[in-house]
Amino acid sequence: MSRATERLAGGALNAAIANELGKLIADFTGRGATKSRAFVHQDLVVCVFEDGATRAERNLVAAGKSDLVRIQRDALQRAIGPQLVAAVESLTGRTVRTFLSGTDEDGGCSIEAFLLEPELPEGGPAALA
Question: Which whole number is the average pLDDT over 46-73?
Fold first, then answer.
């Protein structure tokens, strides 16, 4: 069996991506989302994480400082970006071309999106000729 056919696909791949990225984010921030899901469609991987705000972030929002939560979350997401990209590349067996990340105003919901390099036809570059 080739390495490509041993890779996860469909729902198993989606779950593996959501779980791995959720774990990385939780280890990095000190708290993970209570709900996460991932979707892979052609060259796009999208992960949604809900209810991930820390107690400190919730307190800042309550004090009217949601702008600080957003700035902090953006910085954290950029700092962990290389780890998230590496995990998606490992699980999909494809190269990430672009990584995008965003958080809502209160830090409770975030999205991580990865645009993958196009898949080569079976047989690699020689199959294109």
Answer: 92
